Amino acid sequence: FRGGPMDFSCASCHAADGKRIRLQELPNLTKNPGDGVGFAAWPAYRVSQGAMWSMQFRLNDCYRQQRFPYPGFASDLTVALGVYMGVNAKGAESIAPAIKR
User: Fold this and answer.
1) Residues with catalytic annotation?
2) CA-CA distance, 2 to 44, in Å (whole number)?
3) Closest Cα to residue 68, out of 5, 13, 1?
4) How far is 44 from 95, CA to CA, in rounded Å?
5) How far is residue 58 from each of residues 41, 47, 54, measured CA to CA in Å?
6) pLDDT, tens digit (0-9, with 9 covering 90-100), for 10-45
7) What distance lies between CA 77 and its chain's CA centroid?
8) Are strands 24-25 and 98-100 parallel, antiparallel or unpaired?
């Protein structure tokens, strides 16, 4: 699914190894261990926000950065994304709670 004014999808940023936004390395969420690294680190303390964030808040922030409307809390969309990432992260060791920029 692509959309929004930037014509982004999750794969625009998270479907290749070695991608970065500024200094932040982006996990490849289409495979393990990349998805394990991305999914297993949430919930995390966001230093930039001074708060603990759940995966739901992180997904909402991705949508904000793509200029999409926020998905509803526990909507079918966010549940499906969470299940997809969880299945792709199978076998990864959780590092939550983590510290993120």
Assistant:
1) 62
2) 27
3) 5
4) 9
5) 11, 13, 6
6) 899 999 999 998 888 888 888 887 777 788 889 999
7) 13
8) unpaired
Q: For residue 32, give Cα distances in angstroms to 24, 69, 88, 91.
A: 19, 29, 6, 9
Distance (Å) of CA 47 to CA 5, 16, 19, 97, 98: 29, 26, 22, 13, 10
As a whole number of angstroms, the distance between CA 101 and CA 95 comes to 15
Strand, coil or helix: 5 = coil
How many angstroms separate the CA atoms of 29 and 35, rounded? 4
Query: For the segment 56-82, what is each residue's pLDDT rounded down to a tens digit?
Result: 999 999 889 888 888 888 899 889 998
pTM of the model: 0.81
Domains of the chain listed by start with CATH number: 42-101 (1.10.760.10)
CA nearest neighbour of 9 among 80, 70, 66: 66
